[in-house]
Design brief:
This protein is of the alpha+beta class. It has one domain: Thiol Ester Dehydrase, Chain A, CATH 3.10.129. It contains seven helices and six strands. The chain is globular and about 65 Å long. The termini are far apart. InterPro entries: HotDog_dom_sf, THEM6_lcsJ_thioesterase. It holds the Pfam family 4HBT_2. Belongs to the lcsJ thioesterase family.
């Protein structure tokens, strides 16, 4: 009897430690960011409370708040591991969904609420492309931080840099990812600068930094040529005399 109870407790603890991989956990984690960072502030504003959204903006010096990073702290749960008992590559992208949602809701929270007030719905913010480089494995139950920030934009795209960092003396990087985002109003594209200006985050200095960074990420995510490559082996044309 005691052994059965002990096993049940162990199973319960194991499942609790793997909460990120439980059914529907992804949806809860994702929409929890939206609820905390957009829905709650919207309700508070409706009730007459003063709500400050977005990153802090310095009163002196150039306005570079658009580049404010978000640090997301978590750990590698057992169900996220692959056959090598390391964090599975696929789970990095799941974690990125949560982290990027938090970043976008924090940076563009004021714009999202203004948009909702005008249109009765939030803008659509789909991911256009993601590219990741894996450098260091993450072992079971190892804690790590995901640091994300906007690094560049143009008339259409917003580029986000994310790093999975193992905290310690050397702060080793486990994975680096670049994401290309787009703001949509139905089929219409919302220019990133329009959203930034609505939040008071656009500045000449920030634009100059974006242009420098854009040169690095533009080719990094240029997948146009790859799309034209045929996945099937071409037929061998027999040689002629």
């Amino acid at each position: 009897m005691r052994l059965t109870i002990a096993l049940k407790v162990l199973v319960a603890l194991y499942l609790a430690s793997s909460y990120k991989s439980l059914p529907l956990a992804y949806f809860f984690r994702f929409f929890n960011q939206v609820f905390q960072l957009l829905i709650v502030p919207y309700i508070k504003k409706k009730l007459g409370f003063t709500v400050k959204l977005g990153p802090p903006i310095k009163n002196e010096g150039p306005n570079l708040a658009i580049f404010t990073p978000q640090v997301f702290k978590t750990y590698n749960s057992p169900f996220e591991c692959d056959m090598f008992f390391h964090k599975s590559n696929s789970t990095y992208f799941t974690e990125l969904d949560i982290v990027r949602t938090r970043l976008m809701c924090t940076i563009f929270g004021e714009f999202f609420l203004q948009y909702y007030g005008r249109h009765g719905s939030f803008p659509y913010v789909p991911v256009s492309a993601v590219q990741a480089t894996f450098k260091k494995e993450i072992k079971p139950y190892s804690r790590y931080n995901v640091v994300s920030r906007i690094v560049a934009w143009d008339n259409k795209w917003i580029f986000i840099l994310s790093k999975f960092i193992l905290p310690g003396q050397n702060d080793r990087t486990s994975c680096t990812a670049i994401t290309r985002y787009i703001l949509k109003q139905g089929r219409k594209t919302i220019e990133p600068r329009e959203a930034m200006k609505a939040c008071g985050l656009y500045s000449k200095e920030a634009e100059e930094i974006s242009q420098k960074n854009f040169a690095m990420v533009e080719d990094f995510l240029n997948t146009g040529d790859i799309q034209d490559v045929d996945l099937y082996i071409p037929e061998v044309i027999p040689a002629r005399d």
